[in-house]
Design goal:
By secondary structure, the protein is of the alpha/beta class. The protein has helices at about 5-20, 35-45, 60-70, 80-90, 100-105, 130-135, 155-160, 190-200, 215-230, and strands at about 25-30, 55-60, 95-100, 115-120, 145, 165-170, 170-175, 180, 210, 235. It has a six-stranded parallel sheet, sandwiched between helices.
Length: about 240
């Protein structure tokens, strides 16, 4: 989706959960790249007055390290990003806290409302995010914002597909929190972007292998490459296949 629509969706999810339902927002996010994007967008929305006051907790030691690197080289950010982070330094809002120690992560479970918790892993398969999901999924007041692609077979994908219960740490956990899928934050090129890249090849490769993405989507993309570019051999390899 276009970024404007994406920001509208994100602002609506935050406002309803934090201001109306008085719950928490849990966001699974990859520690490098996605977390920093989300921090930028959350500060931008707060600066524009589109979301209520909130306490942002980034519960990932790796995300802390990556964010330190980004801020150390803030001069290479574009002007919009620089303006947003300068405003954050001057205003101090929204408040952002990084939790590194296990005890600090556990303490987040005592927060009942007003918190935005960003934690890894991005597909909910491991790491601290699973503890925050166990705490917040059974609560109707809370919400989970899915901000990235969830591969088939992952916990994140089960949430996106509408699972009523999920297994966490050996227990069946009811899913009563609302699940918001924000589709415009992908860092990957879409089909149009991929075709711009493929179309710039001076000549077609003798063989092309599509090794990323789900089988059904890869098959459709293969058909489009053959149809639009007339490349000679485009294949979706099967597991264990040798070339």
């Amino acid at each position: 989706k276009p970024m404007a629509e994406t920001l509208d969706e994100l602002a609506a999810a935050l406002t309803e959960t934090l201001a109306v339902r008085q719950g928490n927002v849990v966001i699974p996010a990859f520690a490098v790249g996605r977390t920093q994007d989300l921090l930028y967008l959350l500060v931008q929305l707060h600066r524009e007055g589109r979301v209520p006051d909130m306490e942002i907790y980034v519960d990932s030691p790796m995300a802390l390290s990556a964010t330190k690197v980004m801020l150390k080289h803030h001069r290479v950010l574009d002007s919009d990003s620089g303006d947003v982070f300068r405003w954050l330094r001057e205003s101090g809002k929204p408040r952002i806290q990084f939790t590194q120690e296990v005890e600090d992560s556990i303490a987040l479970n005592r927060i009942a409302s007003g918190a935005v918790i960003i934690s890894a892993s991005g597909m909910c398969e491991a790491g601290r995010i699973k503890y925050h999901l166990r705490q917040n999924l059974p609560r109707e007041q809370s919400a989970v914002v899915i901000a990235g692609f969830q591969a088939g077979g992952t916990l994140g994908r089960r949430l996106v597909d509408g699972a009523r219960t999920v297994r966490l740490f050996g227990d069946e956990v009811p899913v009563k929190a609302r699940i918001h899928t924000i589709g415009g934050l992908s860092a990957h090129a879409d089909q149009a972007g991929l075709f711009r890249w493929l179309g710039a090849f001076p000549r077609p490769p003798a063989q092309t292998f599509l090794v990323h993405g789900e089988q059904s989507t890869a098959g459709l993309f293969r058909d489009e490459i053959v149809k639009r570019l007339a490349w000679p051999e485009v294949r979706v390899p099967a597991p264990g296949e040798t070339v």
